[in-house]
Design a protein that fits this description.
The protein has 244 residues and is α/β, with parallel strands linked by helices. It has one domain: Metallo-dependent phosphatases (Purple Acid Phosphatase, chain A, domain 2, 4-Layer Sandwich). It is built from eight helices and twelve strands. It has a six-stranded mixed β-sheet. A six-stranded mixed β-sheet has the order 4-5-6-10-7-8, covered by helices on one side. Strand 1, helix 1 and strand 2 form a beta-alpha-beta unit. The longest helix is centred in the middle third of the chain and has 13 residues. It binds zinc ion.
Length: 244
């Protein structure tokens, strides 16, 4: 079973399709898991939702999804994110909005728990410290956890008698899944923030009992053109080329 694990597509259809094509170039995919923030920021919310639904995605909700669906106030967002959320709301059909509103906060798939932020605070917490990882592990009933939200590629390892260890995962990094409990972040396929503008994803191969982090070039300029036409916030457009 080969599963593409994506997160934070943020209405970027070029980034999403680039990683999915890359993931299925060698062999067919058996599924796509998405860790939230399907929409918000980018120019193509409907196309991203359609692509993921066509592939029978297993997805959880992110903060942007909740805001766009009207389940959360945009007051908690910074101005650029808030205006993008309101713009996105206008673009979606009733059915698309219902789909986004219906995304669960957490989902268990075999040995993995999917959540956007953390199990302690599913849509808001940026899990970036050992203390936060401890709190998450305490609530994780499966061996492995999958998170997004920070748009960074890393994994966290639970250790006996020691604080959880964080490891950055660069392109091509393979991790064998063993007995120890882990939290994995695939990074973002729609708005990377680690200084590398290439779209990020994680490929899970259950026969190999391993995951691999990958980065893929996509047509950033095409996404930016559409964002300019839609008059989205200039910083949201610029940051795609910077990977920030
Ligand atoms: Zn996000």
């Amino acid at each position: 079973m080969r599963i593409a694990i994506v997160s934070d597509a943020h209405s970027n259809i070029e980034g999403l399709t680039a990683v999915l094509r890359h993931a299925e170039a060698g062999a067919p995919l058996d599924g796509v898991w998405c860790l939230g923030d399907l929409v918000g920021y980018g120019p193509d919310p409907g196309a991203v939702i359609a692509e993921l639904r066509r592939r029978h995605v297993t997805a959880v909700a992110g903060n942007h999804d909740r805001a766009v669906a009207g389940l959360m106030d945009v007051d908690e967002f910074n101005p650029a994110a808030a205006s993008a959320a309101l713009w996105t709301r206008e673009q979606l059909s009733v059915y698309e909005r219902e789909f986004v509103a219906g995304l669960p906060l957490t989902h268990v798939a075999s040995d993995f728990t999917l959540v956007h932020g953390s199990l302690r605070d599913p849509v808001w917490e940026y899990l970036l410290s050992p203390e936060q990882a401890d709190a998450h592990f305490a609530l994780q009933t499966t061996r492995y956890g999958l998170i997004g939200h920070s748009h960074l590629t890393f994994w966290v390892e639970e250790r006996p008698h020691a604080a959880p260890a964080f490891h950055r995962a660069d392109d091509g990094r393979t991790l064998e899944l063993g007995e120890r409990r882990l939290i994995l972040n695939p990074g973002s396929c729609g708005q990377p923030r680690d200084g590398d503008p290439r779209a990020a994803y994680l490929l899970y191969d259950d026969a190999a009992a391993a995951v691999i982090w990958r980065r893929v070039e996509y047509d950033v300029a095409a996404t930016q053109r559409k964002m300019r036409d839609a008059r989205l916030h200039p910083w949201l457009i610029e940051r795609l080329a910077l990977g920030e």
